[in-house]
């Protein structure tokens, strides 16, 4: 078919019930040189074509009055319109659409939403094969059985080929779009997964930071509670000391007087001895409470650790002998001088030696090892403002007693915690030792294994004379 010159590239009738879509399609066609008319349905399209025959029809399928399939059938049975090529716009939602298209005589399918370039290429293809279709007017019959239904199709060979090829091409294009969409979706999924992993890592870090902060708050609260308790205990201890010291001193004096007057065979001598022991125990308890709750002024001097250990062992000699405890001393040949409060140092040793003796009621070995080491005391590592010694003394007190369980080992420095029988311990001995060590810029560490014994390691810095003022707390 040769198109009229006045029509430019030809005249196309657009059959579309949607005014918006019709105007959009008209704009594309006119922009590319095609004259365009518009009909709202198949019946109106037939009337327009009878007035002026178009070169091509582009029709929607679903329309009121007359749909696209019926329009094709009417055109194929009308002499002046049967060779006008028809393009149907469809969603191809049902495979039967292809069979209906063949039955109706449509030449091409174009998928909605359509690509402008593809639409124009289909129009040009049908235009270029217009003469060929004129020469191939012979029809062929095809019987099709599909989805439980029989279809018999009479159509031209070229029309069948055009429709099937356009259907395949549309399906291919749609498949390419699906692959593209799938790849984009996979990329988005990967991106989303990475973001989820990144966010999860951030949340994990935030949770860990929050837990750490909560733990710090708990520790600070515990320290505050402990400080409050100790302050209260200090006031209580002072009150107890004031109320009990004088009566205890009076009782002690009276008991000693009665004991000095009692003969060896007096029946009341043993009860008096028991009273004297209990009075002494009560006095020691009050003294321990006062010592733990109040920081007394230090009297720093140069002391030889070996001499202080020997003098403390003399004080506790009877306590160790009656338990058949063998004492092994491993001292360096050189002097082991440090700057310390002599009385506090003896109190430290006395508490630890007594604990070691109590841990071996049926005998054992108490090893006391003093050694000089180079380096810095761990106590200083995170407190650079403290004294930095060139070396320090390590004092190890090792017993072969019953040992301490892992659970109790974590609590031994807690004030008032004790594993001794009621009346045998106050739970203040080790906390007092810890305070004394720290006041001397040192550390105390306890290692123990049940059934094998306990080792207490005291680390005290060896400092020069210029640092005595620092130990005293001076500028």
Task: Give a quick rundown of the structure.
With 475 residues, the protein is α/β, with parallel strands linked by helices. The protein has helices at 19-31, 42-51, 68-76, 96-104, 116-128, 130-135, 157-261, 269-293, 305-315, 317-321, 342-358, 406-409, 429-439, 468-472, and strands at 11-15, 35-39, 56-60, 86-90, 108-111, 139-146, 149-156, 300-304, 325-330, 337-341, 364-374, 391-399, 443-449, 453-462.
What does this structure look like?
It is a single chain. The protein is of the alpha/beta class and 475 residues long. Among the domains are: 5-135, Rossmann fold; 300-472, 2-Layer Sandwich (Heat Shock Protein 90), CATH 3.30.565. It is 51% helix and 20% strand. The chain has 14 helices and 14 strands. It has helices spanning 19-31, 42-51, 68-76, 96-104, 116-128, 130-135, 157-261, 269-293, 305-315, 317-321, 342-358, 406-409, 429-439, 468-472, and strands at 11-15, 35-39, 56-60, 86-90, 108-111, 139-146, 149-156, 300-304, 325-330, 337-341, 364-374, 391-399, 443-449, 453-462. The strands form four sheets. Strands 2-1-3-4-5 form a five-stranded parallel sheet, with helices on both faces. A five-stranded mixed sheet has the order 9-11-12-14-13. The radius of gyration is 53 Å and the shape is rod-shaped.
What is the percentage of strand-forming residues? 15-25%
Kindly, what is the distance between the CA atoms of the first and last residues, rounded to a whole number of angstroms? 114 Å
Under CATH, the topology of the domain at 300-472 can be stated as Heat Shock Protein 90
Instruction: Classify the secondary structure makeup into a structural class.
Output: alpha/beta
Top CATH class of the domain at 300-472: Alpha Beta
Unreliable spans? 1-7, 377-389, 465-475
Choose one word for the global shape. rod-shaped
Average pLDDT, all residues? 77
Estimated radius of gyration: 53 Å
Second rung of CATH, namely the architecture of the domain at 300-472: 2-Layer Sandwich
Order of helices and strands: EHEHEHEHEHHEEHHEHHEEHEEHHEEH
| Largest β sheet strand count, sense and barrel closure | 5 strands, parallel
In CATH terms, the superfamily of the domain at 300-472 is Histidine kinase-like ATPase, C-terminal domain
Approximate helicity band: 40-55%
Strand order of the largest sheet: 2-1-3-4-5
Total beta strands: 14
């Amino acid at each position: 078919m040769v198109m009229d010159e006045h029509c430019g590239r030809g005249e196309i009738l657009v059959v579309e019930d949607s005014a918006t879509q019709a105007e959009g399609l008209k704009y594309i066609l006119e922009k590319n040189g095609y004259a365009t008319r518009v009909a709202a349905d198949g019946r109106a399209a037939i009337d327009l074509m009878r007035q002026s025959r178009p070169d091509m029809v582009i029709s929607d399928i679903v329309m009121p009055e007359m749909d696209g399939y019926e329009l094709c059938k009417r055109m194929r049975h009308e002499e002046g319109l049967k060779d006008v090529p028809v393009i149907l716009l469809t969603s191809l939602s049902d495979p039967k659409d292809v069979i209906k298209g063949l039955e109706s005589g449509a030449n091409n399918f174009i998928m909605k939403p359509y690509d402008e370039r593809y639409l124009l290429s289909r129009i040009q293809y049908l235009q270029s094969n217009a003469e060929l279709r004129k020469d191939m007017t012979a029809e062929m019959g095809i019987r099709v059985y599909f989805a439980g239904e029989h279809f018999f199709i009479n159509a031209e060979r070229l029309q069948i080929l055009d429709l099937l090829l356009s259907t395949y091409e549309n399906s291919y294009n749609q498949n390419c779009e699906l692959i593209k969409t799938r790849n984009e979706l996979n990329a988005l999924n990967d991106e989303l997964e990475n973001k989820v992993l990144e966010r999860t890592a951030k949340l994990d870090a935030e949770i860990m930071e929050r837990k750490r902060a909560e733990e710090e708050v708990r520790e600070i609260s515990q320290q505050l509670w402990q400080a409050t308790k100790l302050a209260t205990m200090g006031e209580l201890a002072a009150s107890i000391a004031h109320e009990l010291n004088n009566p205890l001193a009076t009782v002690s004096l009276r008991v000693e007087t009665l004991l000095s007057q009692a003969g060896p065979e007096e029946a009341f001598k043993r009860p008096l001895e028991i009273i004297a022991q209990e009075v002494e125990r009560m006095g020691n308890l009050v003294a321990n409470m006062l010592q733990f709750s109040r920081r007394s002024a230090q009297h720093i001097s140069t002391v030889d650790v070996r001499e202080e250990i020997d003098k403390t062992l003399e004080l506790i000699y009877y306590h160790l002998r009656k338990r058949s405890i063998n004492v092994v001393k491993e001292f360096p040949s050189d002097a082991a001088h440090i700057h310390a409060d002599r009385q506090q140092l003896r109190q430290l040793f006395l508490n630890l030696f007594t604990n070691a003796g109590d841990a071996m009621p049926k005998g054992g070995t108490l090893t006391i090892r003093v050694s000089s080491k180079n380096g810095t005391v761990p106590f200083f590592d995170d407190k650079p403002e403290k004294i930095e010694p060139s070396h320090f003394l390590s004092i190890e007190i090792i017993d072969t007693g019953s040992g301490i369980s892992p659970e109790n080992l974590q609590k031994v420095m807690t004030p008032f915690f004790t594993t001794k029988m009621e009346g045998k311990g106050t739970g203040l001995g080790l906390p007092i030792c810890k305070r004394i060590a720290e006041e001397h810029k040192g550390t105390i560490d306890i290692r123990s294994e049940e059934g094998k014994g306990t080792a207490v390691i005291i680390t005290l810095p060896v400092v020069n004379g210029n640092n005595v003022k620092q130990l005293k707390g001076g500028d």
